[in-house]
Design a protein that fits this description.
The complex is a heterotrimer of chains A (506), B (345) and C (333). By secondary structure, chain A is of the alpha/beta class. Helix content of chain A is 35%, strand content 26%. Chain A has 19 helices and 24 strands. In chain A, the strands form 6 sheets. Chain A has a 6-stranded mixed β-sheet, with helices on both faces. In chain A, helix 4 packs across helix 5. The radius of gyration of chain A is 25 Å and the shape is globular. Chain B is an all-alpha fold. Chain B has one domain: ABC transporter involved in vitamin B12 uptake, BtuC. In chain B, helix 5 packs across helix 14 and helix 10 crosses helix 11. The radius of gyration of chain B is 22 Å and the shape is globular. The chains are: A alpha/beta (506), B mainly alpha (345), C mainly alpha (333). Chains in contact: A-B, A-C, B-C.
Chain lengths: 506, 345, 333
């Protein structure tokens, strides 16, 4: 194991308007070491990666590379210094060949004319691929490769750049078990070659298999670090979730009505499989899982945005096959999507027009002509209910803060008088006060008999709000827990799928 | 370099209350600038030619642009949703062929009109269905159907012309509203223009168009049937091609396969010049109305000065580029001005 | 090992667009030749190639623009203006060398392309609007220059008119130029950094920025390429058709786009190759010329072209959809 520190991050802080994404964090990466960066969604891992790769400039603090302080002005700076990231969503050129992707930006040239030397690049690619024992044709177009092989190509690219530090952000999230083994073999050979590897993953079995050292962040803060072989899973999980649940959640005593929704063996190719649950009026069902667990896809399918490839949905005891969002809406389902800037709101339309958009037909005379007065009365009524703070309802949605934008989205949907309300990460990226308001809103809806599905990556929120919790892992339903029996640890264990293995072993 | 939307956002964040600021806001609206351009055009030609500002001449000139202005109306809807249709001239040619041929066979005027509208609507529907179901870009699909529709009329008509029409067929495209000097075509345009303005700005459908143009995904998540709206737009445009074909045939009483060649780009130019964003979501029928008048009377005035379209195309091309460049520059100016004001505080 | 790489070579060739095009060409040529053996005569092939040479040159320029996600509607107008410039210069200086005229056309075309490119890259005006504007401006400039009159055959010098028809090794200069352009731009597209950067910008602009590609520069470059090739085409056009007319090359932009679409270029950018575009052009040429052979009036040429483009588009989309479904199935079953 390497001793020399390659990268030292000290007292790093990154502030975005309204949010401290990183708050005085540390990280030490050594040559010949695989280092796991662990934390929940929103712990600040991705922000740190972006700072290390020169995409963001830190607000405060230092990064030292091989002992001397560096500050990257651009991604290219970082790359030239030897820091290369393999991204979650591969940043590749799908229509170009493997060789071209590897050498884009640092082509080999030949002769006085400085023409591109494809022969040399192809040979080098072959050598690199051979060194990694990869069976990939250098001339294949990247769009014809599987996700796993694309990752391999990106790693090969990092090698061709002679990277010192390779950052892998959730590299296994879309890989099969076989492919993960291949990846680990390559990670080990990188390690032997004396590279430092920063490995970001939610999967504990992987961390324990491949990593030497770990650092834990939580809510943008440094929590601790240690050697993997000297720590237990329980210890690390405690560090991840061990916040005091000081946030207060509104009281909610469910008065369950009749069963309104029954989902059986619902599946969608490539996204999720065999999800089954039932939902009652007045109930809040939490849907928990890590990134890529397939929660959003389940919500989209129930709301008719995507079609299911198998299974069934019953609504009020009758078979229900949502064909479009309009269809689901008419049945009484509302979805507050995760991406409020692209899906929740039309940013360049006024608040009035945004809030009235789903119900225009009912607000208009004879279903066609929008009547200004009725529309304004409606918008004002629901807007005030949500306490939206804006210069007026005529301003465009893009001028509001994230929290107020979310209130607009909520106002937009309560008017449709939904019987089922699906909220996808409703408190992501919004301030504390608004967060509390959103929580109160959810409880109010439930006490009025609305059935709520709450998707969240924040464990305390799920635990604090839900009556029952459905936990997903990589597209599969792991468990449905009653709020009374669920603890942070049990939920997290299901979400990272260590429970299943225990069952298998036991 | 900041994008336009960044600048707009920045502008809006700073509270605007002062009279000067409001005046600047008003006078930098593209529609308002267009009105000034229109006034300038009228003053210029009035000074140059004593025949220009003559009611009879001004009305007579509308014959030259009414049909294109009518076609621009449904094109607003298409471009508003971020689509484009470059097959309209070909659909007009196809419909005109149908009209000419049916007339040769002795069909009555109502039959001709119905046939033309039907063929046009079907051609538009075909475009819309191809674009939405195959999920191909509108420009690629309508490029292909442009050749197909034009190809049918060339294939069937060859180098022949159809010139036999029922008596009175010419009334629609050549005559005036009885007892006045106003052409029937122009009145038809004005009525249709008001209807389109009403639909775009006052109805559910119009609001849906804006929503789709700005963010088709948000529109879909709000329960709008985006596919259906786009298909309706293309079908409507096809229907209008049918109408335009009747008017055109009635005006010139001759149908050849090369009829209306080049109209696609001219009509798209009218729409963009009128301030409709090519990426969708922004624009008004009023702007396109003024834009159509500016282009129409520029052509007429230059004709009076015997400039015969020479400078004309250059002016239109320049206006088109300015229509997009100028609002950008003005946003930049406004943003800078506000930054200065802020700095002074 | 050799066996394996051979297999993959064949498989690779099969999935390529160029292969499909060649296969379709062959399939099409069989019945045509059976019906009319002289279709494949040297003279006829030569005629078809000469007919398509100018289209091929301009389509290559269009290809680069579409490759990085734009479109150039002004190609016809640039051809007209440069063709008119060459015609009028030749009229007033009958002794001028045809090569000087070609250089003149190229220079003027370059400037016009540069103007387009600067408006797109630095004015941030969408390519379709920019060129919709300049298609009018350049056409108007042509009228302004000519004063509305034509340059007719007897006003042009014999040397200039003969230039594209002159042969070297039995092949016309026009064809030599077209082949040279195809070769040159194949080389530029494949063996120069700028060429590859065009692919990068078209395929994934964000990723391209991360590897240090200057987006504005590339956007200017593609329009300059297109303008330059149009300038060359304009100079050749006037000589080949022995006249310079204000309306020349009207609607040519659509033909160039069609050649690109047939060649497998898609509008979302980043895909396609020069060889495909050349084959696409050839495809259009053969279809056009084969119509009389199959007893279809030439009047149906436009229709058949449109149909072929539509089929090409549909095939592209369907194969892409199938591919993405396959990738989905690979994940998690």
């Amino acid at each position: 194991m390497g001793e020399r520190a390659l990268v030292e991050v000290r007292n790093l802080t990154k502030i975005f308007p309204g949010i401290r994404a990183l708050d005085d964090v540390h990280l030490t990466l050594r040559c010949g070491e695989v280092h796991a960066l662990i934390g929940e969604n929103g712990a600040g891992k991705s922000t740190l990666v972006k700072v290390l790769t020169g995409v963001y400039t830190p607000t405060d603090g230092t990064i030292a590379l091989e002992g001397s302080e560096v500050s990257f002005k651009s991604a290219i700076d970082a790359q030239q210094a030897g820091i290369v990231a393999i991204h979650q969503e591969a940043s590749m050129f799908p229509e170009l060949s493997v060789t071209e992707n590897i050498f884009m930006g640092h082509h080999l040239r030949r002769g006085r004319a400085r023409t591109l030397d494809w022969k040399a690049m192809r040979t080098q690619t072959e050598e690199l691929l051979a060194r990694m024992q990869l069976d990939i044709d250098p001339d294949t177009l990247v769009k014809n490769l599987s996700t796993a092989k694309r990752h391999m190509v990106e790693i090969t690219k990092a090698l061709s750049l002679d990277a010192k530090l390779v950052i892998m952000d959730e590299p296994t999230s879309a890989l099969t078990a076989r492919e993960v083994e291949d990846l680990f073999r390559i990670v080990r050979s990188l390690k032997e070659a004396g590279k430092a590897i920063l490995f970001i993953s939610h999967k504990f079995d992987e961390i324990f298999e491949i990593c030497d050292y770990y650092t834990v962040y939580r809510d943008g803060q440094y929590i601790g670090e240690g050697r993997v072989d000297q720590s237990s899973e329980d210890q690390i999980i405690k560090m991840m979730i061990g916040r005091s649940i000081d946030q207060l959640y509104p009281d909610h005593t469910p008065t369950l009505g009749q069963e309104i929704l029954k989902v059986e063996q619902l599946s969608q190719l490539g996204a999720f499989k065999d999800v089954s649950f039932s939902l009652h009026e007045g109930e809040i069902l939490g849907l928990f899982g890590l990134v890529g667990a397939g929660r959003t896809e389940v919500a989209r399918t129930i709301f008719g945005i995507d079609r299911a490839s198998g299974g069934s949905i019953s609504f009020d005891g009758k078979r229900f096959e949502p064909k479009s969002a309009m269809h689901a809406m008419k049945a009484g389902i509302a979805l507050v999507p995760e991406d409020r800037q692209r899906q929740g709101l039309v940013l360049k339309m006024s608040l009035t027009h945004n809030i009235s958009l789903p119900v225009l037909k009912t607000l208009s005379a004879k279903g066609v002509v929008t009547t200004k007065k009725r529309e304004q009365r409606y918008v004002l009524e629901h807007g005030q209910q949500m306490e939206i703070r804006a210069a007026g309802y005529h301003v465009d949605a893009e001028t509001l803060s994230g929290g107020n934008q979310q209130k607009v989205v909520l106002a937009k949907w309560i008017g449709t008088k939904p019987r089922i309300l699906i909220l996808d990460e409703p408190t992501k990226g919004i301030d504390v006060a608004t967060k509390a308001a959103v929580h109160q809103f959810i409880c109010d809806m439930a006490s009025q008999g609305v059935a709520v599905i709450l998707i969240s990556s924040e464990l305390p929120e799920i635990l604090g709000m839900s009556d029952r919790i459905l936990v997903m892992h990589e597209g599969r339903q792991m468990a449905i827990l009653d709020a009374s029996e669920a603890t942070a640890e049990t939920v997290m264990r299901h979400a990272i799928a260590t429970v299943r293995e225990e069952v298998h072993h036991g | 370099m900041e994008t336009r939307s960044d600048l707009v956002a920045k502008n809006r964040l700073i509270d605007e209350t002062g009279l000067k600021a409001r005046l600047i806001e008003f006078f930098t609206k593209w529609e308002v600038i267009l009105i000034f351009i229109a006034i300038a055009v009228f003053l210029f030609f009035n000074a140059k030619s004593r025949y220009f500002l003559d009611w009879f001449n001004l009305m007579n000139a509308t014959f030259q642009f009414s049909e294109k202005a009518i076609m621009a109306l449904p094109m607003i809807f298409i471009i508003m949703c971020g689509d484009i249709d470059i097959s309209i001239a070909s659909i007009i040619a196809l419909c005109a062929y149908v009209v000419g041929n049916a007339a040769l066979g002795g069909a009555s005027i109502p039959t001709l009109i119905v046939l033309s509208l039907l063929v046009g609507a079907l051609a538009g529907l075909f475009n819309g269905v191809l674009i939405t179901t195959l999920e191909m870009p509108a420009i690629a699909v309508t490029l292909a159907t442009q050749s197909i529709y034009r190809g049918i009329s060339i294939g069937l008509l060859g180098d022949q012309a159809r010139t036999k029409f029922p008596p009175n067929f010419g009334v629609l495209g050549q005559e005036f509203v009885s007892g006045t000097i106003i052409p029937i075509e122009f009145v038809l345009y004005l009525v249709l223009m008001l209807i389109f303005a009403f639909v775009l700005h006052k109805t559910t459908y119009g609001r849906h168009l804006y929503a789709i143009g700005n963010s088709s995904e948000a529109a879909r998540f709000s329960g709008i049937n985006v596919k259906a709206v786009r298909i309706i737009n293309f079908t409507l445009t096809g229907l209008f091609c049918g109408l335009t074909a009747v008017l055109l045939a009635s005006r010139i009483l001759s149908v050849r396969s090369n009829i209306a060649t080049g109209w696609d780009l001219e009509i798209i130019t009218l729409v963009v010049l009128g301030g409709v964003s090519i990426t969708g979501g922004r624009g008004t029928v009023f702007g396109v109305f003024i834009g159509s008048l500016v282009v129409g009377y520029l052509k007429f005035g230059m004709g009076l000065l015997k400039l015969s379209g020479t400078l004309m195309t250059i002016v239109i091309g320049t206006l088109l580029i300015c229509a997009v460049l100028l609002p950008r520059l003005l946003d930049l100016y406004k943003a800078n001005r506000k930054l200065r004001i802020q700095a002074q505080r | 090992m050799a066996e394996r790489s051979k297999m993959t070579f064949i498989r690779r060739a099969m999935v390529r667009r160029e292969f499909t095009l060649v296969a379709l060409l062959v399939i099409m040529l069989v019945p045509i030749t059976l019906r009319s053996p002289q279709f494949l005569s040297v003279a006829n092939i030569n005629r078809i190639l000469n007919d398509m040479a100018i289209l091929a040159i301009v389509a290559i320029g269009q290809f680069f623009v579409i490759l990085c996600g734009g479109i150039d509607l002004s190609v016809g107008s640039i051809i007209a203006f440069t063709g008119m410039v060459c015609g009028m210069v030749n009229e007033s200086h009958p002794s001028i060398s045809p090569f000087v005229l070609l250089a003149l056309g190229i220079g003027v075309g370059l400037l016009m392309g540069l103007f387009n490119g600067v408006l797109v890259a630095y004015g941030k005006i969408p390519p379709i609007i920019t060129t919709l504007g300049t298609v009018n401006i350049y056409r108007g400039m042509t009228f302004l220059l000519s004063g509305g009159s034509w340059v007719t055959a007897h006003e042009l010098s014999v040397a200039y008119i003969a230039f594209p028809r002159n042969t070297f090794l039995k092949i016309s200069y026009l064809l030599w130029i077209a082949f040279a352009i195809i070769g040159l731009f194949y080389y530029i597209g494949r063996y120069t950094r700028t060429g590859r950067e065009v692919y990068a910008i078209g395929g994934n602009p964000t990723a391209a920025k991360f590897v240090g590609v200057n987006e504005n520069k590339i956007r200017v470059v593609v329009f300059v390429i297109s303008g330059t090739l149009c300038g060359l085409a304009g100079a050749l056009w006037t000589a080949r058709y022995a006249s310079a007319v204000n309306e020349m090359a009207t609607g040519f932009e659509m033909q160039t786009v069609a050649a690109c679409v047939l060649g497998g270029v898609n509008f979302s950018g980043g895909a396609g190759g020069i060889i495909g575009v050349a084959l696409g052009t050839l495809f259009l040429g053969i279809v056009t010329n084969a119509l009389p052979v199959v007893y279809l009036s030439v009047f149906w040429q436009t229709f058949v072209q449109g149909l072929i483009i539509l089929i090409a588009l549909a095939l592209n989309t369907i194969s892409d959809q199938r591919k993405s479904r396959r990738v989905l199935q690979e994940r998690r079953g």
